[in-house]
Amino acid sequence: MFPTWRIAAAKAEFQHRPRRATIGLAGWIALLGFPAAVIGVAATAVFPSAATELIVGVWLLIVVATVLVAVWLWVWRVSELASKESSARYDVLRDIETSRLTLRRPAPKDAVPLEATIDDAMLASNGWTERNGRALIKAVGRGRPTPGLLVIESRSDATVIGGATVHPGDDQTSFASIGWWIGPSHRRAGYASEAVAALVDAIHDTGYTSVEIGTNESNLAVQRICDKIGATEKDRRPQPLPDGSTVPGIWYEHHRVVTEPT
């Protein structure tokens, strides 16, 4: 009846704002209930001699239809508002270009080439399950990509070589956290360093004062990139991963260096 993303938005509304969700749904039922009651009264008046069972059946049908339509309209409204809020929060970056790469929002046509960049090594290093990967690709193909997802594309031949994620902090101005991956056929060519450096600069350009990067203590490649772009170690703490495991994590922080005018 509804795409899964609309259902998820409605579920999240009830989980995080139960009072507002209940009032909103009740409002839709009340809004539709009045005209539905008028229809029910009119039907009863038109057929006064109808059997009691028929009258009860008509009223039951009206009540059920009213509730179902109200729920449908409420879920649609909540999911639309959630989508707009998400876009306002996450879609703060314009396309980013480097000498060799473009970082941009994904389109449905990117689903297949992006899937080719997700292999066992990528899943393991990010703590993803195969289900996480399939869900991400399915969302891209449906035109509803994960908020904050970017594809990394080669400028020379428009090949999708990887992806990146940007997650704003709660106040949307102090910090954002990022992650990234490069597909198996394009690794060890310096693409990750190039993409991350440009992404961090672009995030600062939008007004974020710091960018956070978390990684496993054993992931030396990410640590080298953090050192290369000038990120400093912030702290070390256990890092929960999407696959349910927890690893010893290092959290880096990058601040833009502001040069005082002379």
Low-confidence stretches: none
* Strand adjacency order, main sheet: 1-2-3-4-5-6-8-7
CATH names the topology of the largest domain as Aminopeptidase
CATH homologous group name of the largest domain: Gcn5-related N-acetyltransferase (GNAT)
The total count of strands amounts to 8
Count of individual domains: 2
Percent strand equals 15-25%
Helix content: 40-55%
Number of separate helices: 8
Computed structural class: alpha+beta
What is the second-level CATH architecture of the largest domain? Answer: 3-Layer(aba) Sandwich
Q: What is the succession of H and E elements?
A: HHHEEHHHEEEHEHEE
The profile of the biggest β sheet is: 8 strands, mixed
Radius of gyration: 25 Å
Rough outline = elongated
The rounded distance between the terminal residues' Cα atoms is 63 Å
Description:
- The structure is a single chain.
- It is built from 8 helices and 8 strands.
- It folds into 2 domains: 4-90, no CATH class; 96-255, Gcn5-related N-acetyltransferase (GNAT) (Aminopeptidase, 3-Layer(aba) Sandwich).
- It starts with a helix and ends in a 7-residue tail after the last strand.
- Helix 1 packs across helix 2.
- The longest helix is centred in the N-terminal third of the chain and has 39 residues, at 52-90.
- The protein has helices at residues 4-16, 18-46, 52-90, 111-115, 120-126, 130-141, 191-205, 220-229, and strands spanning 96-97, 101-104, 149-154, 160-168, 175-182, 210-216, 232-240, 246-255.
- A hairpin with a 5-residue loop joins strand 7 (232-240) and strand 8.
- The chain is of the alpha+beta class and 262 residues long.
- 50% of the residues lie in helices and 21% in strands.
- An 8-stranded mixed β-sheet has the order 1-2-3-4-5-6-8-7, sandwiched between helices.
